[in-house]
Amino acid sequence: MFIFCLATVISTFIYLCLIAYYIYYWNRINPPLIPTSAELPMVTILIAARNEEDSILACIQSCLNQNYPPNKLEVIVVDDQSEDDTNELLESIEDPRFVHMRLGVYKRTTIKGSKKKAIAYGVNHAKGELIFTTDADCRVAPDWIQSMIPFFNDPKVKLVSGPVKITNQSSLIAKFQALDFSANGLVNAAGIKSGLHYLCSGANLAYRKQVFLEHNVYEDNYHIASGDDIFLLEKIKSVYPDGIVFSKLANSMVETQAVSNWTDLIKQRLRWAGKMRHISDWNLKWIPALIWIQRILLFSFLVVAISLGSVNYILASITAIILQLLLDFLLQYDACRFYTISKWQIWFIILEPLHTIYFILLGIASWLPVSIEWKGRSNP
C-alpha cells in the first residue's frame, strides 16, 4: 500500500507542476509588438467542406464580412464530395471574392485523407500569400484577419494558431464542451509559448502559402484519415521551430457550435485521439499518458483507502484531490475569463468528476480498433 501511495503522490505532484507550468506560460503570452505594415498582404480564407448545408452559408458570410480591403481578400470553399445540398448552396453565392471548387467524385465513401487533399488543392489555387483556414461549421469575427496579420510582419513567423470557442452553451453537454474547449485552448497556447508541445485547431489557423507549398506538408500522411491541422503544424515546426505563435486576442476568436449529443461527442473525440497515434512529438504522448495514469491512481487509491478504513491514507487521497481541484480551477478560471464564459465557471465543480470519468474511458477507447463514421465516411 505504501508503494501505491507513493506512486499516487508522485504522479499527482508532477501533474500539479504541469498545470502550474501551463498557467505561468499562458499569462506570459502577449500581443504582437510589431505594427501592421501599410501594405496589407493578399489573404485567402480556405474552407474544406463536406455535408455542411446547415452551416456553410453563415460561415461564408462571416468570412466575406471581414474588415479587410475587398481587393485583398479571397474566400475559397473546396467541397469534399458532399452528399447533401452543400454544393447547390455554394453555387448560389454571388460575390467576386468567392471561389467554389470541387474535388473529383470518388466511387468509394471511405477515403482517407480527403480533407487534406481538399486543403492542398485549395492552397495550390489560392491567390493569397497568407492562408487562413476555418471549418465550415464555424463563424469568424469581423476583425479576424486584421488581428492575425501583425504577427506575420515578423519574418520568422510562419504559422499563427488562434482560439476557438463553443457558443451554444445552454445544455449540459454544451457547457461540458465549452469548459473543455477553453481549458484545452489554454493548454495548447501555453504549450506553443513554452515550446513544450504544439497543438492547434484547423478551425483557426493562418500560415504562409509559400511554406505550405515548399515543404509539401501532407506528403507523408495522406493515408491517415484526419489530422490536417496537426500534421501541418508538425511539418512547419520541424523546419521552423521558432516560427509558430498563438494569437491571444479576442478579435482572433472563432466560434463553433457544440456537438448536440454524447454519442457524436465521443465519436468526435475518438477521431481526434486517433490522429495522435501518428504524431512524432513525444511530449504529446507522455503528457496525456501521465495525466491518465494519475487519474487512475488517484481514484483507485481513494477507493482502496476507504475499503481499508485507513484514516491516514484517506486524508492523503482527499488532500491530493483538493490540490488537484484547486490547480484545475485556477487554470479553468484563466480560460473562462479569456473565452468570456466566466458565468459557467461554477459548472466546473459539477462537471469535473464527469470529465475525469470521460477522460479515463476515452483514453481506453482511443486504443481500441474501432471504426468511426463521420459525415458519411468510415474513419478507421
Can you put this structure into words, describing what you see?
The protein is an alpha/beta fold and 380 residues long. The chain has a single domain, classed as Spore Coat Polysaccharide Biosynthesis Protein SpsA, Chain A (Alpha-Beta Complex), CATH 3.90.550.10. Helices cover 49% and strands 13% of the residues. The protein has twelve helices and twelve strands. The strands form three sheets. It has a seven-stranded mixed beta sheet, sandwiched between helices. Helix 1 (2-26) packs across helix 6 (172-194), helix 1 (2-26) packs parallel to helix 11 (311-338) and helix 10 runs antiparallel to helix 11 (311-338). The protein is globular and about 75 Å long. The protein starts with a helix and ends with a strand. The model is unreliable at 106-111 (pLDDT under 50).
Topology:
Layout: H1 2-26, E1 43-49, H2 56-64, E2 73-79, H3 86-91, E3 98-102, H4 114-125, E4 130-133, E5 138-140, H5 144-148, E6 159-161, E7 164-166, H6 172-194, E8 205-208, H7 209-215, H8 228-239, E9 244-246, E10 254-256, H9 262-275, H10 283-308, H11 311-338, H12 347-365, E11 372-374, E12 377-379
Parallel strand pairs: 1-2, 1-4, 2-3, 6-9, 7-10
Antiparallel strand pairs: 4-8, 5-10, 6-8, 11-12
